[in-house]
Amino acid sequence: MSIPSLVPLSSTAWAWMHNSTAWGYSNCGLIASEGQALLVDTQFTLAGTRQFLDAVEEAVPGVEIITVVNSHQNGDHTWGNQLLPEAEIITSAASAAHLCEEISPEQMMMLSRSAPTSAVTAYAAKHIGGFDFSGITVTGATRTFTGTLEVKVGRAAVELLDLGPAHSAGDVAVHLPEDRVVFSGDTLFVGAHMIVWSDSLSACIAACDRLLETGATTFVPGHGEITDRAGVIAFRDALARVHEDAASYALSGVELSDAVRLVKASHAGKLAHPERLFTAVAAAYKEAGAEGSPSTVMGLVEGMAQLSAE
Ligand SMILES: [Zn+2]
Known about the structure:
Elements lengths: L4 E4 L4 E5 L10 E6 L2 E5 L5 H14 L4 E6 L5 H4 L9 E5 H5 L7 H9 L5 H10 L14 E3 L2 E6 L2 E9 L6 E6 L4 E9 L11 H13 L4 E6 L5 H23 L4 H12 L9 H11 L9 H13 L1
Parallel strand pairs: 4-5, 5-6, 6-7, 11-12
Antiparallel strand pairs: 1-2, 2-3, 3-4, 8-9, 9-10, 10-11
Helix pairs in contact: 4-5, 5-10, 6-7, 7-8, 7-9, 8-9, 9-10
The structure holds zinc ion.
Zinc ion binds next to α2 and β12.
């Protein structure tokens, strides 16, 4: 269980913070000005999203939520969308196109509540088993964009950045230039290893550079604690070191399973979920044109679950 709270970042921005590296406890954002509000993401469950919306109402009484930006399509960032039927829901075109490939709430419930007879079901039960996904109707975006998009929230100018595929098939960051704040979605994890659902670890590194190019000084990650420029640089450089080693293993013909163990041994460090290194190495192998990487989300989950069980 996590007890989240709404943390003020400026006179117009707040972060809904779990400060947790556990699966599913994603951070959200609130930007409010002159009676209007924009939310960055919703929560994994309806109860979690209601709790967030109650905190929004308490911080900015009577505010009208006109926009929700989904940083990507994973359920822990979107499964509360249905509670905002009046709002425009924006994401990138690449992110919207991927919605149909996501695991559904029903599948997630089945996976996390079935007997832990395989590495995957044991992993799902351990990390996702505490969430209740009943009543969720997956609700997609009502507006998509490519490149960048400016939106106004009261007097606040908000810039949406289409980062392309990185963590997911399409990631979006929300930039508030006046306050030098960026909500990064899952292109940043603080205190935990990166999950690479896309096929490119290089793209994850490039996405960090893109976040830094905004000139922002405060970064709200999809998971973990708020960080600064040094935190983003450290995260990017750690990804680059993993990429360098994984690419050289791929080039010398090391089997993926062996490369994963070698990378875990030298790069796990103190961060949570070292098993996620499986997804980073698998992506680096794909980029290098090497064989053996799984081509589906479930294949990546299986790789992580097996590595975690070792
Ligand atoms: Zn997430």
